[in-house]
User: Which sequence fits this backbone?
DNA sequence: TATGAATGAGCGTTCATTCAT
DNA sequence: TATGAATGAACGCTCATTCAT
């Protein structure tokens, strides 16, 4: 979120991009806390001072990377589906793919969110957007009679999103194995049954 | 100049406890990263150096607090229940109570787990213990015919534990409201239905 | 934040040199142990952190100063001499001059060698080089019949080097007087006679 | 050099001795600088505070150990000898034996003398006493016509003492081998010849 | 724009010494 | 005497940020 993006020359834009790329790599390898500005500039093959030509702080680069990440996590929508169960399956698979692509950076996102209040806010907003979308789907399905009307749609969306999100986090960032197939099948099944959808 | 002594005098044990208590308070208020040893010693009303009489590092106090915390999160078992659904409800409520008691410190636990590999390992082990216990229950219910036999018990336990755990984390640490009643009811309902238990 | 860089700009090289110079002065005045990094940076009129731009530790500056010192103690060779006795006299005077120039730092060299094993090793190597050179001369003189062949040349070189070295150390660092003439004459005479050379 | 030795009870004297013994061991193993009061008290199996019951500072124990050491290095006199050469040989052997017994502590003596001005003074006085005794012997031998009268007796004594002392230091503390025979023979021979004594 | 040297506040840790019991 | 807990000044090192060129 640079204040003066417009003013960048072609060359400047390239340097900026090199720094962003390098920062992502280093953050993923070392974590935010252990990353030094030197690590980033060395990786980007630019001078130490050049970092501050484009970003005011270490947080700033990270925020921009996270913005791009959230964008990427949101835009890859699955094709439309015939039934709610298929819809759920499609969304879960798409989310899994996006998470897998970005797992290393997602780990850093969790890290930074635990000590940077501002960033925690952004993360919350991003999550709320997801939850809200799910809640709308559940409400729709309740109106259609496909889902039990006694469920609180917002709360159910929260809980199911937490299940999927945290399961993927633990699997892809911490102690998952090579095969996520069973995990994904289980998530699909649990979600569908929890909502009372026909398998 | 004893280093993390085993044998303590009565007086020494008291001072050590004061430091632990103070550390917990400060960690909860400032987070692990922003906590300075001075903050802890000032709060405990002991000299700066006294911290190091009892703990070799800031990590060490935290680890001990976390051990006590895990202990507390594990030992408060609910009364026995008649049906699986009642059992789930009981476990969830007990876990919620324990989480609520310790929410502030749990937030720090998440923080430290994101950058301290050793601690992440301990946390993983603690989580695995919980999951394993749930998996055993699910297997039992499957043998009894109460739960669909096609579900992978270990994976289902993982996912449902992730749901409950992360929901409580988000609610109690981040953006929950004063009333957790609906959340708990939703968690109970979703868990029971996901497993195919009669409401 | 470069760590002990090889490539330096002109300006960087100047600053580095200022720090080295200041370090030598402070070491000579206070000794290695009582020297604080602040003392050095204050003397050099640079910021505290600038010390660490060029040297990783206090030991590192000292090692570099010692390397230069050993270089200086080694390279000032006396003019060639006609007789062994004249040769001895020439070497002794040259060594005395070099020692006098560097007496304050030599004192610190002794200090550091008593507690830093790595440095003691370097010092030993430097001494061995000197002893070996003397041993070669003694062997040559033995072949020429000028020196008694029953003497162990290596051991004699060791002992005589110890005599000269330690005498100068005690004289120039500890309790010598203003006039070293008698000392030098005595060292020349004792060395020559000990080897059985004609006065 | 305790101020209140007289007031020690039998039990107190024993504790004090235990501390002195332990201190010597630890100093020898770790050096003065790396020795901590705890190391000493642990080794002596006394309470931390007991150290300060008997010695005001770390330096104080060391000074007392050094006093005893100097005493031991001085009092073991060789049997009377017939000729100056035999006398020299006898003194050198006795000094070698004493040095060998105390080599580890002598190393620490050198260490402390490099940074403690007060102790350097004591060491100087001890050395002066030795040198003076040698100078007297040389003067006597000069009067007897056994040694060349042109030699400055004080200066020669200084130089020859430096030779023996430093040779033994380097041999026993730094890089000597198991067999000191050749070294001692060389020292005897060099000393005798340097003074012009008949072998 | 690009460079890399300069800055200095900040913090963890050590350990000799004191003191209450 | 003996004990061991309590004290806190001291110092090395880090590293984000600034600045001169």
Assistant:
């Amino acid at each position: 979120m640079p204040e003066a993006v417009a003013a960048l020359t072609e060359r400047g834009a390239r340097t900026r991009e090199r720094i962003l790329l390098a920062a992502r790599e280093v953050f993923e390898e070392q974590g935010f806390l252990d990353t030094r500005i030197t690590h980033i500039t060395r990786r980007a093959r630019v001078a130490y001072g050049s970092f501050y030509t484009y970003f005011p702080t270490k947080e700033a680069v990270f925020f921009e990377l996270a913005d791009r990440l959230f964008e990427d996590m949101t835009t890859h929508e699955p094709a439309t589906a015939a039934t709610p169960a298929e819809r759920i399956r499609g969304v879960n698979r798409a989310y899994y793919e996006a998470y897998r692509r970005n797992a290393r950076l997602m780990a850093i996102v969790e890290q930074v969110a635990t000590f940077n209040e501002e960033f925690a806010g952004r993360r919350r907003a991003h999550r709320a957007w997801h939850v809200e979308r799910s809640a709308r789907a559940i409400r729709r399905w309740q109106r259609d009679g496909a889902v039990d009307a006694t469920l609180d749609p917002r709360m159910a969306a929260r809980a199911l999103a937490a299940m999927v999100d945290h399961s993927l986090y633990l699997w892809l960032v911490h102690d998952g194995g090579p095969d996520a197939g069973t995990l994904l099948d289980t998530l699909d099944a649990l979600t569908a049954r929890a909502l009372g959808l026909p398998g």
